[in-house]
Amino acid sequence: MPLQKAPLKQGIANLMKDMMDRTDPSYDEFADRLSTLIETYVKTGTVTVALGIPVSTAGSPTAQTGSTTATGTGTIS
Predict the structure, then answer these.
(1) Distance CA 12, CA 10 (A)
(2) How far apart are CA 51 and CA 75, in angstroms?
(3) What is the DSSP letter of 5?
(4) Are 77 and 2 in contact (CB under 8 A)?
(5) How many CA atoms lie within 13 A of 32 on its CB side?
(6) What is the pLDDT of residues 20-74, one digit of tens each?
(7) Separation CA 18–CA 30 (nearest Å)
(8) Is the pTM of this model over 0.70?
């Protein structure tokens, strides 16, 4: 699923309106709510990792286990 920008934009706008309506600013609450919006936004993305990352396997031919032996490069969309 591609990154969902519209909900992030709306969430930031709502946050800013809420903060502007206050008589006492709350920087901690603003930072907490903004970081939650950003975290939610990033989690909407799909991470695609390039093919061809080397792996090491062990076990019988019908019960292989393994892990990567090199770092891979991914993209978030």
Answers:
(1) 5
(2) 12
(3) H
(4) yes
(5) 4
(6) 999 898 999 999 999 999 999 999 998 888 888 888 889 888 888 888 888 888 8
(7) 9
(8) no
